Amino acid sequence: xxxxxxxxxxxxxxxxxxxxxxxxxxxxxxxxxxxxxxxxxxxxxxxxxxxxxxxxxxxxxxxxxxxxxxxxxxxxxxxxxxxxxxxxxxxxxxxxxxxxxxxxxxxxxxxxxxxxxxxxxxxxxxxxxxxxxxxxxxxxxxxxxxxxxxxxxxxxxxxxxxxxxxxxxxxxxxxxxxxxxxxxxxxxxxxxxxxxxxxxxxxxxxxxxxxxxxxxxxxxxxxxxxxxxxxxxxxxxxxxxxxxxxxxxxxxxxxxxxxxxxxxxxxxxxxxxxxxxxxxxxxxxxxxxxxxxxxxxxxxxxxxxxxxxxxxxxxxxxxxxxxxxxxxxxxxxxxxxxxxxxxxxxxxxxxxxxxxxxxxxxxxxxxxxxxxxxxxxxxxxxxxxxxxxxxxxxxxxxxxxxxxxxxxxxxxxxxxxxxxxxxxxxxxxxxxxxxxxxxxxxxxxxxxxxxxxxxxxxxxxxxxxxxxxxxxxxxxxxxxxxxxxxxxxxxxxxxxxxxxxxxxxxxxxxxxxxxxxxxxxxxxxxxxxxxxxxxxxxxxxxxxxxxxxxxxxxxxxxxxxxxxxxxxxxxxxxxxxxxxxxxxxxxxxxxxxxxxxxxxxxxxxxxxxxxxxxxxxxxxxxxxxxxxxxxxxxxxxxxxxxxxxxxxxxxxxxxxxxxxxxxxxxxxxxxxxxxxxxxxxxxxxxxxxxxxxxxxxxxxxxxxxxxxxxxxxxxxxxxxxxxxxxxxxxxxxxxxxxxxxxxxxxxxxxxxxxxxxxxxxxxxxxxxxxxxxxxxxxxxxxxxxxxxxxxxxxxxxxxx
Length: 800
Prior knowledge:
The protein is of the alpha/beta class. It has 3 domains: about 10-370, Thiamin diphosphate (ThDP)-binding fold, Pyr/PP domains (Rossmann fold, 3-Layer(aba) Sandwich), CATH 3.40.50; about 400-600, Rossmann fold; about 615-795, Rossmann fold (3-Layer(aba) Sandwich), CATH 3.40.50.920.
């Protein structure tokens, strides 16, 4: 480029600042003592176990120092998202250099002793991880699992118009499916109301042991690829054949990077001004071509060129620890590597950073390591309407039908309305907002859409350039958006078909781990909870068949630490409304809500629902006939369809065995089943025994895989008496009732199970048992002929 935005003095300082970050990065990987090399380096100064990743780190350091210059020149607020999470030493080094680190960790100050402690703690027992972890100031994206940097960046930018989000994408990460889909996030970014996202694709050529795909494409191919995605790529390239000429190369690439970053910010500002003008003129915003940077530099840049005759710099051998075998020769090689950064020109004798270097870093909250947005310090609570005003009313339980999620949608519509001014609530999902019955939300907002419009779209009034519902057929991208939104302090809900939420299993894992870790970091504030609605669930996938039937996400969720996960199975609309209000008010959890969208029977008034949800489970007196005494059997349930089948089984048993004492128990908060020592919502053994008894048969109709109930209850006194029924991987295209029949969760099988397990029925129940078995045969014949369920099943209501 012709532009030379850096004076020679500033260029020199920035280059030395970069060298300081590189020196500190290498020191973290290797050094235990002797941080300033005041003594000749010896093996005893080097860590016994060498862990970490060097290859991507110098590139991350290079970008960081140039981002600092941009922040100071333009008075920006910037978030730095590190896709190559293995570059942890770089982000730690830069936050230490700028002074953020010692503000959060006063003992690791910018002195020789602080530097030594900085080095020792890295990848050391009871120290800090090698990733850009929650312990790293300014971080909101660990990057240990690849593919989420771009979706996190856009999630952080939505409704944050003052933020510039720098998303560094590693070329290895760029090969993942989630990352590939997330490039389309630019079709959802509002140029005025949202922040700027500046992706930087870092091509350094190699993964752990192989070349990367994008690094082997020509400039022309990469240009076409990203122009197709809707970006305008700017290239900053250090050619393989020239980077050995250190002096000329460093001068050149610093100027190129500075000029390119200036150009990108100018383009972003121009996009915003053009959008403002179009809005003022009453015109739709023209979808812009967003700038991005493609930076090509050697892997392991500035590191050893080769080790014992084998190529290292600009090769995959630099990915992790270049000197892993620390013999006498490599001790010498490491010392030479460290000294190549000329630490005496970077740090004073007492370990403090040279004053002329600290001067070029941003100050206060403008430092990327001190940005309050990524530490949860800017988060505001939602303004919540009174959920009790949305009550589904009825005179008698189990006789009126309603669509639970539709009622939830009315509440979410008004949450959207109440928070329109502070713009801190969004809904995401893979093309399922209307399908999952949240249609009322569209009375208040539309679907975000900046792709092209067709004439017929004018009749689709849910499309909007400023909508707050975001739909894309990539569960990964939806998850990434909402995580980025939550991690920067805002609130939302993610609705998804139950079977396909498994697509984000790994993303959930990473987020839950982040929440668990940050709960114990006092300078990070509690974040809004990540809320899922799982609907179109297993028991109402008779029309789609076997491929759409899987309730196993909740099994996956309960593997995580009890302090961060919650699972709710509201049986009707009023309990769902109560649970929704609780989830949106909560912080620092992952809340998984499983609820039906089809018309279903309603059981609890709003007052009853609030009390039931507050306890998490309870005896339904109106469905029980044990009169406060000792029951013969406990009929328990969790989930919408299991609740109906358990009630219908109770009805059958009471018709045929009027003297049978049945206690009916419904569970809405699944974690209450665990002992209180294992989960804060868990019941004490005494409470559990008082509800479920310690010696009576418990027939448990469960929404998911039945063995999860046994896993949660295995330490309970009466565990041997608990007989769970749930989904057993049976089902196809059939009828709703046939789904429960083939999994033996239906009313007839439940009633048969009670006859088999209650001692006093063993002698008198044979005729009734046969009648119920005959009903199952009748059911099979009826659906084969009529293609629908038996009228007595389809039209059943609670008769008492």
